[in-house]
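task queued by scheduler; priority normal; single chain, no ligands, no partner chains; default sampling; output format set to structure tokens
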Amino acid sequence: YQVNAGNKPVMFQKLGLQANDIVASIDGVSIGELAGRMDILNNLSIASSLTLGVIRNGQEEEEELVVDFSQ
């Protein structure tokens, strides 16, 4: 999934994301597999960090994110 900052460019930048990044995986699970995996999606809502697999300029990179879903 291709991502862009939308109306929150500062948050987007703090997360280490760049315009037109493609999120390919979350915590090592491909985006395509997440759709049918409610157990993984439920765990994301209580996670304190996650790792995004991001394709940027044709190269895959990993971005470690600290998250707070309580807000």
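post-processing summary
- The CA atoms of residues 24 and 53 lie 5 Å apart.
- The two ends are 24 Å apart (CA to CA).
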